[in-house]
Amino acid sequence: MKHTTGIHHVTAIVGNPQENVDFYAGVLGLRLVKKTVNFDDPGTYHLYFGNEQGSPGTIITFFPWPNAYQGRIGSGQVGVTTYIVPKGSLTFWEDRLSKFGLAVTKYERFGETYLEFDDPHGLHLEITEREEGPNSAWAFGGVPAAHAIKGFGGAVLLSADPLRTMRVLTEVMGLTRVGEEGDFIRFRASGDLGNIIDVKQTTMAPGRMGVGTVHHIAWRADDFADHEAWREHVSAHGHQVTPIVDRQYFNAIYFREPGAILFEIATDPPGFLHNEPFEQLGETLLLPPWLEPKRAELERILLPAEVRVLKEDL
């Protein structure tokens, strides 16, 4: 029986790239660890945000589509992306989100207090406190390391077929069912980041991909050999899985589970330091070798997007 330690990354579609950087770096205090392009659509950025080095379990990635149509969150998608912060930090985050004018809902689920809010493009996010998981060493703007986001707590899945999705989580991905409360069933992976998945039992109208929606959720594979074993494992359970794809910072395979959510399995190595020093992560546009000849053309197409301290923190 194979089991993943949890979420590797979550990838979403957003709008203007500067608004995206201002929110995730400027407001949430995450580090932009890689500025590159969508290898399948090079005229679009692929921006990666995480802890100080973009560790697996902390990485949220974005395809900014300026002026694109708004998506609809619904069945077949990740409904909410959950972040965790150190114990005692929730008041800091409640005050900070209020300072930036965000509408925040505070509520309880499975004995935890959550702050739920949307990013500027409609993506549903929530923050809760947990002891588990290493603290981030990154501080930026008005977010000190003591209160910085550690990484993912997990996600809420909106499935078109919740029973079959839950079977995939346990029988294929190796998560353990740990609780039920109201409309949610909770599952736990073996790691300490991105390890809690809540599945909504009631189905919703189908989601529509567009700005403000999650494109896919990626699970962790330990290394390249483990990744190959995962591909065989997923295929043996009857799922159509892609060949292994080199994404420069990890290798990836993809399959759509029966509830219509796109799953990826990604390798922990090589990570974001293999082609950029720690001190300079995310500062320049990095292109894969096959796109380097098109750098001038791509830089003309891509809108400017830079990390900056926001006026509210000056």
TrEMBL record:
Keyword check for RNA-binding: no
Classification via Pfam families: Glyoxalase (PF00903)
An example Gene Ontology molecular-function term: dioxygenase activity
Keywords attached to this entry: Dioxygenase, Oxidoreductase
InterPro entries per UniProt: Extradiol_RC_dioxygenase, Glyas_Bleomycin-R_OHBP_Dase, Glyas_Fos-R_dOase_dom, VOC_core
Domain VOC, first and last residues per copy: 6-130, 151-268
Keyword Isomerase: no
Record-given protein name: Ring-cleaving dioxygenase
Organism of provenance: Ectobacillus antri
